[in-house]
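Title: Comparing notes on inverse folding

I've been comparing how different people in this forum approach sequence design from structure. To keep things fair, I'm posting one structure and asking everyone to reply with a full sequence. Here's the target:
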């Protein structure tokens, strides 16, 4: 059993709100959010790391491409633990790549590089780490989507209200790229 804390984001969390405090989280007991068809679980965020990095998982069904976006100040890591995830990346010179990542595969996306991904198999899982001088973006998921108390994927996709796309991403170092085209398949 893990300890629960009250934070500025949630009434109950297994993540302490103040830095410098060791803690443990049992499987699946981090701060959860639903966004589109995915379950995002946060295990460590800016509050615990002095805004130097975060650690989270994204689980989802086989589905649509997550919209192209970039992080002006944040580097992002993709490490696949289940299923398969196709990662699309464009470097700062405009060169595009795509790679199918399967369990044990790793992808790195530097700051300012457009990227997107798509779950290619049912119930794929990615471990994510984001770090950079601009802080961390883990609270983006629950502010654009919805906090989730239960384990598991959402029963219905959680589609954000249009006005949230204008406010939430910028606050969390996420810039969507509407109309971005991938030259790869």
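Reply #1:
Here's my take.
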């Amino acid at each position: 059993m893990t300890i629960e804390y009250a934070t500025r984001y949630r009434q109950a969390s297994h993540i302490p709100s103040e830095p410098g405090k060791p803690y443990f989280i049992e499987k699946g007991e981090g701060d959860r959010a639903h966004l589109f068809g995915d379950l995002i679980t946060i295990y460590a965020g800016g509050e615990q790391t002095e805004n130097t990095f975060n650690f989270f998982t994204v689980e989802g069904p086989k589905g649509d491409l997550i919209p192209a976006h970039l992080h002006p100040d944040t580097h992002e890591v993709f490490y696949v633990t289940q299923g398969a995830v196709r990662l699309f990346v464009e470097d700062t010179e405009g060169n595009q790549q795509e790679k199918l990542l399967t369990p044990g595969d790793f992808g790195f996306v530097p700051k300012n590089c457009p990227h997107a991904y798509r779950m290619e198999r049912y119930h794929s899982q990615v471990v994510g780490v984001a770090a950079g001088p601009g802080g961390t973006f883990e609270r983006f998921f629950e502010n654009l989507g919805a906090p989730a108390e239960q384990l598991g994927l959402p029963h219905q996709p959680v589609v954000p209200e249009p006005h949230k796309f204008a406010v939430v991403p910028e606050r969390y170092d996420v810039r969507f790229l509407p109309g971005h085209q991938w030259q790869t398949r």
